[in-house]
Specification:
169 residues
Length: 169
């Protein structure tokens, strides 16, 4: 079977790199830059080093907790309709309730919150800087192919949803 024919028969988004790998690669690169090459500490100004460090760490941990619970809740929406949250699996319906009524990509959004929380709690400006290319890559390598898949599978139903709900927030 040649490549175009194979793509016509697949019932999932054509994602070249799984999104968790993109998040982990950005986190790893940021950590390598911070701990092995050129540390760029992230500090909060004018509240004292110990108090500032505790506040920064606490805010980071709070973001991680919010992101983990939000991710779990969002993934559970797929279980309710018998689908998998994996973009490499078929989608049987468009979810428009819960977090999906606010963002078309709440799972990626909550994982991004976890990512930022890790960077904040570790006090690594490099991890925070890597957030910019991370979001660009997630959008180009995961979100856009998913949108193309959903448009081709659901047509006007997805286009109406896309028009009503923002991509991120």
């Amino acid at each position: 079977m040649d490549e175009p024919e194979k793509n016509m028969n697949q019932d999932h988004a054509d994602i070249p790199i799984p999104p968790p790998i993109i998040y982990l690669a950005a986190l790893g690169l940021g950590a390598v830059m911070h701990y092995l090459i050129w540390p760029l500490p992230l500090t909060l100004p004018d509240i004292g080093s110990i108090a500032g460090e505790r506040l920064r760490t606490g805010l980071g941990i709070l973001l991680v907790v919010i992101g983990v619970f939000g991710s779990g809740f969002t993934a559970s929406r797929f279980k309710l309709i018998g689908d998998s949250p994996s973009p490499t699996k078929p989608t049987s319906a468009i979810i428009t309730t819960g977090p999906y009524s606010i963002s078309r990509n709440p799972l990626y959004l909550f994982v991004a919150v976890v990512y930022l929380g890790i960077g904040l709690s570790l006090g690594s400006l490099w991890i925070i800087i890597m957030f910019i290319p991370l979001i660009y890559l997630v959008q180009r390598l995961a979100i856009i192919p998913e949108e193309q898949y959903l448009e081709s599978k659901f047509g006007d139903q997805y286009l109406d949803y896309k028009a009503a709900v923002r991509r991120w927030i």
